[in-house]
What we know:
By secondary structure, the protein is α/β, with parallel strands linked by helices. The protein contains 13 helices and 13 strands.
Amino acid sequence: MNSRLSSLGFTEKRLQETAGYSGLVPGRVVARDKNLYRVAIAEGDLQAEVSGKLRYQALDGSDLPAVGDYVLLDNVDAGTGKAIIQQVMSRSGLFERKAAGTANETQVLAANVDLAFICMALNSDYNLRRLERYLSLVWAGGAVPVVVLTKADLCPDRSDKLAEVKAAAPGVDVLVTSGLTEDGFKPVAAYLESGKTCVFLGSSGVGKSTLINRLLGSEQIKTREIRKDGKGKHTTTRRELILVPGGGAVIDSPGMRELGLESADLAKVFPDIDIHAISCKFNDCTHTREPGCAVLRAVEEGTLDPKRLANYRKLLKEAKYVGLNAKQLEREKINEMFSGFGSLRQARDYIKRKNKRR
């Protein structure tokens, strides 16, 4: 196998997948700028566009190529460095979210990811509820999450926060890094290996770009000082897959202010709640006000953080609405609002009777 294809993550199984597409050239999307893509192939990088057929067949934007996708190209012109993307190959390790400002549009953030480094600074960015949200998305996409706590030098109560993070991320490796030391990136580097792809996730200003530059051995990604209010500035403006000299590939991603759930694996993020739920009196217990709820009892006894339970309910409700159109979404919310009446018709009759008394 070509060494460059191997470093890009192409395995023998991937190459076998291309056998049914005679005449097409395999490559991997390493960057996207609107409708233009930079695709890495065995001989180098090309600028590519999506074929009209592929664009026509796409049901929404998630069916179009994303950074990390393995694709098949034709019309490859070495002279101009251009090509046409004809096919997106099968995906794994998919990281996606609801597109900001839309009701039901999916945005693929990165594809074919093996590891997801969820970066969270131990100073002003510290947020356990956001961490739980990231974890639910990563687990659902099929990648393995690793929590990276940055800026440890700015945190006086580091041990306490480390304990909180481990409790919020059961079964997940947690790394502590500092930008002040030259070898602060080494705990992360230990996870990289040839053919594996890692994505760096987290808010702006948490140190993702600094970590990646250390892994690459050069300042390939711009970094900026955080603002006076402690919030980060967007330094990365688009996603890009970069080969690491020591082996493997990394995907840098812009900090995200909105992270709407497209899919979620709450069982892996909240196993403690599921364990308590086994002892609930009712099998369909919602852990809100039912008598005999073991989850609520755990909160009362201090063995379960009430904020963690509140976030679980929030994410569970949000995931319930995934995939619904506007009409279905409205109906579902109405049904939930009047769930105690037994049916929507009973709720309407109740409202009519109440209005007549006025």
